Amino acid sequence: MDEQCNKAIGIFDSGVGGLTVLKEVRKKLAREKIIYLGDTARVPYGIRSAQTVLKYSVANTDFLLGQNIKLLIIACNTASAVATHDLRSKYSIPIVDVVGPGARRAVRVTRNRKIGIIGTEGTIRSGSYQQEVTRLDPRVETFTQACPLFVPLAEEGWCSRDDTVVMLVARRYLDNLRSCGIDTLVLGCTHYPLLKNVLQKVMGNSITLIDSAEETAREVVDVLTAKNMLNASKCNGKSLFYLTDIPHRFTETGKLFLGDELGDVTLIDI
Fold it and tell me: What is the DSSP letter of 38?
């Protein structure tokens, strides 16, 4: 069991948004070693066919298994929607996706059973969050809004609630959801936690925001605790980063997501 506990947590995403998940996992599980794979050469996954997304997800998982991981996090909403079932059938290690934890938390906290969901066009079109919420509680109504401009705004660092442009974009996207009477809003993209202050200001304090990165990290803690697989080391674990391409300004973008330097990044071909 000790050998199993000392293995790393593996995370993959189509790009850099999953770094928000890594940040939350690191906050809650400081002793764990984390290996992050960003498939930046093939981002975005949202425009790919389900068959292609599954193929990429299998390749990502195989690479991370080769790095001796004990648990896998699918930190990509598209891959979570398309590939989670197949990956769980194919591999024996615990697998945590980003859709399920956020949906479960939203169903638990909603008071009026009206939940809003925002995400990329691909995530909203997939219906993954809506289906999971309905599966958990058929009485809950879901209201969705694709917010494609939020990703580039987050990557540019335009995340301040005092920024006029960001506030105008957010109000344009979210006004319809506010009029639907929702009391809970799921941030269905791993970039969106960077805009949380903006979103809260637009929606108002009466609306509960569900951060999928935070909820995913909580589930990882629960899974590792239940399986007695937490790292018992007294030292903080390291984070290793692998990318399939080094995008322009990646270091700056990564620092924005994590709040500190990434350290060494290794370029790989899978």
Answer: E
Q: Which domains are assigned to the chain?
A: 2-97+214-267 (3.40.50.1860), 100-212 (3.40.50.1860)
In angstroms, the CA 99 to CA 103 distance is: 6
How many residues belong to the chain? 270
Q: Which of 37, 215, 12, 14 is nearest to 132 (CA)?
A: 215
Residue 250 has pLDDT above 90, yes or no: no
**Closest alpha carbon to 253 in 163, 130, 157:** 157
Question: 118, 169, 187: which is closest to 160 by C-alpha?
Answer: 169
pLDDT per position as a tens digit, 29-83: 999 999 999 999 998 888 888 899 999 999 999 999 999 999 999 999 889 988 9
Q: Render pLDDT for 170-222 as a digit per residue (tens, 0 to 9).
A: 999 999 999 999 999 999 999 999 999 999 999 999 999 999 999 999 999 99
Name the pTM for this structure: 0.90
Q: Report angle CA 155, 161, 165 to the nearest 5 degrees.
A: 65
Cα separation, 146 vs 188, whole angstroms: 10
Which active-site residues does the annotation give?
76, 189
Would you put residue 204 in left (φ > 0), alpha (ψ -120 to 50) or beta? left
Helices 77-90 and 99-109, axial angle in degrees (round to 10): 110
